Predict the 3D structure of the following.
Amino acid sequence: MGNFIQIANFGKITAYKSMFLQGTGVTVLLSICTVLIGFLLALVLAVMRLSKFTPLGFLGVDKDGHLRDGGALLAISRFNPLSFLATAYVEILRSTPVVVQIAIIYYGVFGSLITLPKFTFLGFIKFDRFFPGVIALGMNSGAYLCEIIRSGIQSIDGGQTEASRSLGMTQFQTMVHIILPQAIKNILPAIANEFVVIIKESAITYTIGVQDIMSTVNAVRGATFIIIEPLLVATAIYFCLCFPTSKVIAYFERRMSRGDRR
């Protein structure tokens, strides 16, 4: 056990501190881009799931204009293709491993169907590896955030929607100015937790060559044959990213909730 961790090994890996800094920068940028893509995608998916778009609704009415009592035509008339597609997307993405999704996006989509330009930005980030990682993580995050946003929207009293519509506001205006601001405040803790999860899950992108923190750990291990100490450094970096982030968002959550206190 005495050889499990050797202090001298930390001195050896200090030569790679610039790589750890670069890996941290990639992880942060990857997480921010993922959150933006995931949140926008989740908004669209949540609206689709809550939509009442039934293009075949006329089948639910008989020739006399009365609603059918049952049968296949009534079931078909209630079919909502937007909600179906959004639900299918969410269930598939939530029921499959993220590492599989990343592999499909990187090797299947951008490896076979779409050819990305190969260049480096910010001096060390390879676009053809970074971009697929962002897309894959964003798609995965969007599936989880969709359910969070949907529950937040449904938690708002329906009377507010009716009141805004009586004032002449459109459905879009009601959603943007009335529903979403309240929903976001209600689900902020869940969104914050998802952001912290994204920071940690971004480590899986090293499997497709993204130069994040875990990629640095592998590079140090290959050069020095040291594994435990680089992993401990990576653990400390992830903790320094996740813990303060959760505390900062908790602070803003308390500030936002002050207006609700009587």
Remarks:
- The first strand starts at residue 120 and ends at 121.
- The mean pLDDT is 85.
- The first helix runs from residue 7 to 13.
